Amino acid sequence: MSITVYSKPACVQCTATTRALTARGIDFDLVDLTEDDAAMELVTGLGYRQAPVVVAGDEHWAGFRPDMISRLS
Fold this sequence. Notes:
- The structure is a single chain.
- By secondary structure, the chain is α+β, with helices and mostly antiparallel strands.
- Helices cover 38% and strands 23% of the residues.
- The protein is built from three helices and four strands.
- The radius of gyration is 11 Å and the shape is globular.
- The termini are close together.
- Belongs to the glutaredoxin family.
């Protein structure tokens, strides 16, 4: 399953999310929303207005969600 974390600089929840994924040994791609207009369109199209947005297969969520991250491992 492909996992992508859409984040922005100086985002506490983004850092917590990527640290939790790394600690569990889960591979992911990191996309900076401030540098990628297409990525910003994607996450706003999904209805999100906050970072991070995690897309894991058919599932997606926003914010630091340890419960969702634990389901990935």
